Amino acid sequence: MLGKTAGSLFWMFRYMERCENTARLTEAGFYIALTRSKSAEDEWQSIIKAAGVQTHYETLHHDYDGATVINYLLRERDNPSSVRSMIDLARSNARTARTALTREVWEAVNEAWLNICGALKNPVTPKNLPEILGLVKRQAALVEGALQSTMLRNDIFDFARLGTFIERADNTARILDVKYHVLLPSVSLVGGSLDNVQWETILRAVSANRSYRWVNKGVVSPKGIANFLLLDFSMPRSLAFCQAEIVHYLNHLGRVYDVQDQSLNMALDLLKSLQKYTIDQVMDQGLHEFINRFLTENRALAAQIETDYGFYA
Amino acid sequence: MIFFDEMLEGDLPRESYVDFFQWFGEQDPKLLKNKMVEAEAVFRRTGITFNVYGKKDADERLIPFDIIPRIIAAREWNQLTTGIEQRVKAINAFLYDIYHGQEILKAGVLPASLIDNNDAFLPQMIGVHPPGKVYTHIVGVDLVRTGADEFFVLEDNARTPSGVSYMLENRETMLQIFPELFSKNKVQRVSNYPQMLRQSLEACAPAQCEDKPVIAVLTPGIHNSAYFEHAFLADQMGAELIESQDVRIEKGKVCMRTTQGYQPIDVLYRRVDDDYLDPLNFKPESMLGIPGVMDIYRAGGITIANAPGAGIADDKAIYSYMPEIVRFYTGEKAMLKNVETWRCSDAGSLKYVLENLSDLVVKEVHGSGGYGMLVGPAATKTEIERFRRKLIANPSNYIAQPTLALSTTPILQKGALSPRHVDLRPFVLVGPDKIVTTPGGLTRVAMKKGSLVVNSSQGGGTKDTWVLED
Question: Which helix (H) or strand (E) holds B39?
Fold first, then answer.
């Protein structure tokens, strides 16, 4: 397989993942704005932070008014991370990697592009927002479904999945990082019980509201949430889960190509660090520091994968 | 002018259309309209779009597709392919000769000036032996019809003929939306074209290639208007789709950067023009080519399809000599007719052309895509006069042909059949010892009533083309 094709697959799935995560973040923000009109602006600001676009946002807009943020996140062309921009990028990478995709996956991505661009043609209003967010999530699920049910389990599939999990781990870590202060023990000590709308944002942003309650038998605690998103291997958006998947696919690549690349060693180290600590130890050494270290290493891992498999000349 | 209609003779269908005509009569016009919408949705979803240069990707366009098939009887087709294969054989023999002994010039059949001053002639190809002696691995022969047995070659496409993906996708789409039609009519399949192309290219691999040849399609990139086709063919052939930046030269081979290091390519199906193919040997500013690929080619390290310099065979000035070329290399009379052509470089011809501009079609010698041409009978007085001035200023840049009475086949319009002019581009694959013409081809149709220009850049559409079984 061409290095360029591997790179396009990797990025195509990173962009698809980011599309979906942005939709979910927007949904979480919208939910809070609906339930608590007072601090809505603060909430939208933290959503922009979690999306990692604060600096860019502030070059274009002065306040955190809901409609502005929603349109910025979903359809603003000048925002390279808007859903509209990212579905463009996902599709253009899919076109470059066309020869590596089944007809079903290609058509799913192309349809996602057609439908999402169509839906985002006009400004988004609170009335059609739920419908549009639903559409984005549904189209992403169709791509995922086509991938799972039609693609050969070979190196092509490995690169696609690596893109998904590298991006997902990054997104989950960033959401936690922005909200880490509400999970800190000191806050809950000072303020008594945890602000339950705040933790709901976190869980909604990773589609884990229901599964968290199920796993933790309804007991909501800051530590519980942090543990769930960082270290729980059964939670499909947790750092631990993503890292295990990354190791799995790098291992598979190594077997197919009969090499042990630097990226696999890095991924194994990262996985070990997630297995080694309990949540108490993580909290003790500082949640923010822990997440920051993870984000840096995850970025380095992505760069190493690019080098090991010749994505660029 | 009276036009030959391929479906109807008076009110009755011709033989090859009998079953279709009956079926059509039984259809609800409203449902057919829905089928048209359905077909368009299929094309959008599949992404069979082309970029219009200078526009953003939001403006990706569809080439209009008409759901009424064009049907050709087996007998008609067999006659055509014999003529096509004779012509393509002659083209390859001509190319070999023109880049080696130039016997045809020595014999005085062709004036040497036609070669010497021709940009399509590549001196870099003199004395080069393409593997299998094949120059034109893929040829598209543009045909028009004027009567029951009257076919003319309008143009040979010996460089990188495009449109084959439409031939294949048009059929796929028809199979999806009208499956019942294919159980009634026995249509010869076109779907194995990519496999045939692959085999044909493999058979032309360099002599030094011992394993199964590695094939790559070279595309100018994602922004090229034919990118869909490049990706489609690479995908269907199981070949890699490469761009300039994916390759480099190592140990006398062109190698592509894979996830496991650099690997050699044996056959390059390039969709990049000669000029841009190799900045070291042709246009130095080209960013689309592979620096040094011509040197590897000359040393026998890679096959390039079609061979550089093959364009000299489809040049419009050479075209007018095609009957002589066929006779010179095959010893036979050309079975396919040429359209009578006046070369405006010749003073006598120029005089005739200038006197008859309103009846003639005048084209640029190196033009394509239906740009820069004059269709006399359809042009206004002002257009004719403007063209006259261009023609006088640079006569050798033009050829002229009579306006042909292009056949019509109906398209579906407002639920009814309405005749439109068509042409046909069959695709021919050339291997070292066999020539195969895929049964069918690309039918281009002028969607505008009365128009004779079928080019997609000028608002033309396409149709599925059926060749019936015997």
Answer: helix B29-46
The residues with which B425 forms a beta bridge, in sequence order, are B442
Q: What is the predicted pLDDT for the residue at B52?
A: 61
Number of domains in chain A: 2
Start-end of CATH 3.30.1490.270 domains in chain B: 340-402
Residue B133, number of CB atoms within 10 A of its CB: 15
Contact yes or no for A257 and B260 at CB 8 A: yes
List strands edge to edge, sheet with B342-343.
B342-343, B398-402, B360-364, B374-375
Nearest CA in chain A to B241: A99
From the list A1, A88, A313, which residue is nearest B258 (CB)?
Answer: A1
Contacts of B194 in chain A (CB under 8 A): none
Q: Is some CB atom of chain A closer than 8 A to the CB atom of B240? A: yes
Q: Is-contact A222 A183, C-beta < 8 A?
A: yes
How many beta-carbon pairs under 8 angstroms link A with B? Answer: 69
Q: Would you call A179 helix, strand, or coil by DSSP? A: helix
With CB atoms and an 8 Å threshold, state whether B257 touches A3.
Answer: yes
Residue B409: strand pairing partners: B420
Shortest Cα–Cα distance, B136 to chain A (Å)? 25
- Contact call for B45 and A6, based on CB within 8 A: no
pLDDT given for residue B368 in this prediction: 63
Give Dmax (Cα) for chain B: 68
Confidence (pTM): 0.90
- Summarize pLDDT for A237-273 with one digit per residue, the tens: 999 999 999 999 999 999 999 998 899 999 999 999 9
Please answer yes or no on whether B231 and A6 come within 8 Å at the CB atom: no
What is the C-alpha to C-alpha distance for residues B7 and B38, in angstroms, rounded to an integer?
Answer: 24
pLDDT digits (tens, 9 = 90+) for B81-128: 999 999 999 999 999 999 999 999 999 999 998 898 888 999 999 999
Which residue range is the domain that position A209 belongs to?
Answer: 153-313
A43 and A131 part of one domain: yes
A115 → chain B, closest CA residue: B45
Kindly report the CATH number that applies to the domain delimited by B340-402: 3.30.1490.270
Residues from chain B contacting residue A111 (CB–CB below 8 Å): 45
Both A130 and A100 in one domain: the answer is yes
CB contacts of A1 in chain B (<8 Å) are 240, 258-259
Phi, psi of B461 (to 5 degrees): -120, -170
Nearest CA to B372 out of B310, B458, B461 is that of: B458
Last residue within a domain, chosen from A98, A130, A151: A151
A187 and A129 co-located in one domain? no
